[in-house]
Design brief:
homodimer; alpha/beta; Rossmann fold; Arc Repressor Mutant, subunit A; 2 domains; nine-stranded mixed sheet; two-stranded antiparallel ribbon; about 10% strand
């Protein structure tokens, strides 16, 4: 059933040939002025031999016995997005599980990544599994160890159907350690394979399977991938199909994120850091927009510009009179006097023996009064924050520096 | 000396105004059909008051006493790339240190990031400091705690000049904990400030300083930045100046990488994961190309396609005869027999009682023979690797899965 000879599937494999192999072909090309034609007779004979070994009746019986069903293009459950694979479209799919494949894949995202995932990758995959499922998106993955398994588990934990596309028969449990996971997927989602029952996975079948993961979903997110990873093969399929491709960044010290970073660096993938951002990518324009990540507002944000200038000009130690504060702030004396009154009322500053200084002792501010000098807060007051950072302050230990300090450099 | 009123510098600040402030201005605009004009008289008076407090002669004396020198546009040491700031170009710069600023900044990269950097950020900043310096690039940064300090230290460790651009007078040590660092920078590189000696840093001066960091260097790399970070202000300046902007990704679970990820997500910055990739960005086209990251080749890469197909079709357990292997591999019996001979000679497979099976016991292969079936290795044989992974193999524990396994999904 797998169409090993199809050109669409051969592309990634060809790209991974060694320079020697490429050189060898080059020489042949130079000699013949064209790529050598495949020996069609030999190929036909190979297929003939394979045909003789095929036993469709036994396959159907084995499938029925295992509880799987076979769908073909035109079946009500057939996901029509697979038609985009052109001649590489599977001839049929074996399904095993309670969920309807077509319905499940209407809104679906492929979450793929390394088998040998780090704990970071597993954590992120599970978070994406939960987050996408809770937002009504089906998680499609390959049922492998690592990222795939974590993504499926996340989806199952969110009581959502999930689709596992296998490189072996739908009744074969590969990897064997995932037998309970696959049982849960069959119970709540569906296990998919284009191989007949009883077929074991091979390298080629994994690569061919990857095109189905990409083709079933609206977009693919690579959670973790080494430089040489099957997940990057899925990513290539997603790009070939003009589906959205996203990658999750990770530490540059981790080899398991190197593949993701290469996708980002080459601008093949969009950087996503949360399930919401992934949905922003694959969802409906406008409806599924992710909120832009924002740092929390600090009370200082509510001050108007001259008041902020005056606040910046007030010393931490000692004290300064209104005139010198006005000079340092670059505002008029009247403006400075007005701002000083507002700032004192809001608890930012206090009187010193020789003028004004920043108030240090209070850990929280009183609510800013609705004055002309302080913008009235229209949103609920944010949680009390530390003192406004002051550059003339003693140097804070940098592990303890408050987040707002960053605002300062 | 800092030009607080210049429009170029006001942009980022305006963008960070609260929605309320923005709304307030909107109302004013609607009423007047234009932005309210600044009260020029008041501003002039404020500048007059400041002018009265200025004492250039004392500044020059203090600078000379501290060992600093003043350069102005036209001085031999003036870095002409600052002219791109237009009217925002500094009127002059105070320099303190042994290095020549103009020469140091001919090939320079700004390494910026969070003060409250994580150990990851500090590590990466130091690595970039060392890597850039060893490749002949000067590291420009702000001398702050965290990423800035680590980048300077990395450059100093590589015996390279480094440029610290301060928001206070060149003789003021802010942060105070960096006094030994600044002494080392003065010794080997140069400390730069546009503030006269004795001036203390303020919020506004940090933001104004950031434009100099961006303008002095050919490109800026943001190592770690929270969503609200001064480093992002520097990034904005770099973009305004059409300089290269890069960001280092990090764990999405780290708030200190959120700013970097936003830059990547919005495609404002290029993803860089090593100093070489940064140099690829800012360097000479062709000369400074970074090697594309590649996973190591495995012996299997050297097999030609039919041989690879045959290898994939050989079972781990039991054994299979040449005819059934040929059917499974989809090659002719002759081709299968030839490939089996080569694979056996290369140590990939062995004879079983009923045919052939994968060889499991050997941890390394013999050198592949130069046969027609196996591409002759033209490069030195890579280090011995584990057995070629087999899908029918017992499931390997996923922490221990070899890197080549990933190739398999």
């Amino acid at each position: 059933m797998p169409q090993t000879g199809h050109q669409y599937d051969q592309q990634p494999q060809a790209a991974r040939q060694t320079p020697q192999a490429h050189e060898g072909r080059q020489i042949t090309q130079d000699r013949q002025y064209q790529r050598p034609r495949p020996d069609l007779t030999a190929r036909l004979n190979a297929w003939h031999a394979r045909l003789a070994a095929a036993n469709p009746a036994a396959d159907l019986e084995a499938g029925e016995k295992a509880g799987a069903r076979l769908i073909i293009p035109g079946s009500p459950e057939w996901p029509t997005q697979l038609d985009q694979l052109g001649p590489g479209r599977p001839l049929g799919l074996w399904l095993h599980g309670s969920a309807d494949l077509r319905f499940s894949c209407l809104k679906s995202v492929a979450v793929v990544g390394a088998r040998a995932a780090t704990s970071y990758g597993n954590h992120i995959a599970a978070e994406f599994g939960v987050g996408l499922s809770e937002a009504g998106w089906t998680v499609v993955s390959g049922g492998a160890y690592g990222v795939d398994g974590a993504a499926h588990r996340g989806a199952l934990a969110a009581d959502s159907p999930t689709v596992a596309v296998l490189a072996c028969g739908a009744d074969v449990c590969y990897p064997a350690g995932h037998d309970t996971l696959f049982a849960a997927v069959r119970d709540q989602g569906v296990v998919v394979s284009e191989c007949p029952p009883g077929v074991h996975p091979t390298r080629a079948r994994f690569l061919i399977r990857n095109r189905l993961i990409a083709a079933l979903s609206r977009g693919t997110v690579v959670v973790e991938a080494a430089l040489r990873s099957g997940a990057l093969n899925t990513a290539t399929h997603a790009l070939s199909l003009n589906r959205h491709l996203a990658a999750v960044p990770g530490p540059i010290t981790s080899g398991m994120s190197a593949g993701c970073h290469r996708l980002l660096r080459e601008r093949k993938a969009i950087c996503v850091t949360s399930p919401e951002e992934m949905i922003d990518l694959v969802g409906v324009i406008g409806d599924d927009l992710a909120r832009q990540a924002r740092a929390p507002a600090v009370p200082r944000d509510k001050l108007n510009e001259p008041t902020r200038k005056v606040l910046d000009a007030i010393p931490t130690r000692g004290g300064a009179g209104p005139a010198s504060i006005a000079v340092a702030a670059g505002v008029s004396l009247d403006a400075a006097l007005s701002a000083l009154g507002g700032l004192a009322a809001a608890g930012y500053i206090e009187r010193a023996t020789n003028g004004w200084r920043l108030r240090k002792e209070s850990a929280s501010y009183r609510k800013a009064p609705d004055s002309a000098f302080l913008e009235p807060p229209s949103t609920p007051e944010p949680a009390p924050l530390d003192d406004p950072p002051s550059p003339e302050d003693a140097d804070p230990p940098h592990e303890m520096a408050p987040a707002t300090w960053e605002d300062y450099r």
